[in-house]
């Protein structure tokens, strides 16, 4: 892609984000907040090559889709507010998840840096959550105009989608849908080690079973894959 085409795409992305949040910009106007977004994405671009993505979407395990905004050699990124809107997730709650995840990533990166022992600060683990440094204030619709929440927006890498789903309003359904796929993956990875690992009750009494029983599934891998991506499903027992 030519430089002019890249600049056009990048500016269109910035315009889209600012237009979405136009009613919620806080403390500073669009020009200042646009500048901060540019600075934030520039930090990412210094350590990896950002590529334009057009028309590509990521499946949110059957609960919706989100357009890919940028990609690198190893990652594809979605906009957090796109995902939140698709899942019916208040943006301020989604931002709380992103802030929490980013804090853990900083801790893990720092630990990795210290273990490496060369005095350098790494960036690899911080690429999963890119804070666009927007300053937003969103009024909670159900609070009668009396409750405001600070929020922002982030670029989130594809490998963080599962973690995002676990924190979303659909977390219970997501866990239920993916349980068999997770069990099969766990069994495939650890194999006979699970059969050799006895399990115990909370008081230390042996259950007479092994860890393999905990991760049993009656589904095939293909059936489990389809179930994991089925999205919302009617559960008669739960009345839904």
Written account of the structure:
The protein is an alpha+beta fold and 240 residues long. It has two domains: 3-169, no CATH class; 173-228, no CATH class. Helices cover 47% and strands 16% of the residues. The chain has helices spanning 3-20, 30-47, 80-87, 91-116, 161-167, 171-190, 192-195, 211-214, 221-228; strands at residues 51-52, 57-59, 65-71, 76-79, 129-131, 136-139, 148-151, 154-157, 198-200, 206-210. The strands form three sheets. Strands 1, 2, 3, 4, 5 and 8 form a six-stranded antiparallel beta sheet that branches. Helix 6 runs antiparallel to helix 9. It is globular and about 65 Å long. The N and C termini lie far apart (48 Å). The mean pLDDT is 89.
Helices and strands in order:
Blueprint: H1 3-20, H2 30-47, E1 51-52, E2 57-59, E3 65-71, E4 76-79, H3 80-87, H4 91-116, E5 129-131, E6 136-139, E7 148-151, E8 154-157, H5 161-167, H6 171-190, H7 192-195, E9 198-200, E10 206-210, H8 211-214, H9 221-228
Antiparallel strand pairs: 1-3, 2-3, 3-4, 4-8, 5-8, 6-7, 9-10
List its traits.
single chain, alpha+beta, six-stranded antiparallel β-sheet, two-stranded antiparallel ribbon, 9 helices, about 15% strand
The strand count comes to 10
Low-confidence stretches: none
Order of helices and strands: HHEEEEHHEEEEHHHEEHH
Q: Radius of gyration, rounded?
A: 21 Å
| Terminus-to-terminus distance | 48 Å
């Amino acid at each position: 892609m030519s430089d002019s085409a890249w600049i056009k795409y990048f500016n269109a992305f910035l315009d889209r984000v600012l237009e979405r949040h136009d009613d919620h910009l806080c403390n500073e106007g669009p020009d200042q907040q646009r500048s901060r977004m540019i600075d934030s994405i520039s930090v990412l671009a210094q350590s990896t090559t950002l590529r334009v993505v057009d028309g590509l979407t990521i499946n949110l395990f059957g609960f919706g889709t989100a357009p890919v905004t940028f990609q690198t050699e190893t990652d594809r990124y979605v906009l957090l507010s796109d995902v939140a809107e698709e899942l019916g997730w208040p943006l301020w709650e989604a931002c709380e998840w992103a802030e929490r995840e980013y804090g853990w990533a900083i801790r893990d990166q720092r630990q990795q840096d210290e273990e490496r022992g060369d005095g350098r600060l790494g960036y690899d683990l911080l690429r999963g959550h890119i804070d666009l440094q927007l300053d937003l204030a969103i009024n909670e619709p159900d609070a009668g105009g009396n409750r405001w929440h600070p929020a922002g927006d982030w670029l989130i890498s594809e490998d963080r989608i599962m973690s995002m789903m676990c924190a979303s309003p659909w977390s219970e359904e997501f866990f239920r849908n993916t349980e068999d796929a997770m069990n099969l993956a766990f069994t495939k990875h650890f194999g006979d080690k699970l059969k050799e690992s006895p399990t115990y009750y909370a008081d230390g009494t042996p259950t007479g079973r092994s860890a393999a029983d905990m991760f049993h599934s009656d589904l095939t891998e293909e059936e489990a894959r389809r179930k994991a991506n089925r999205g919302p499903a009617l559960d008669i027992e739960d009345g839904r």
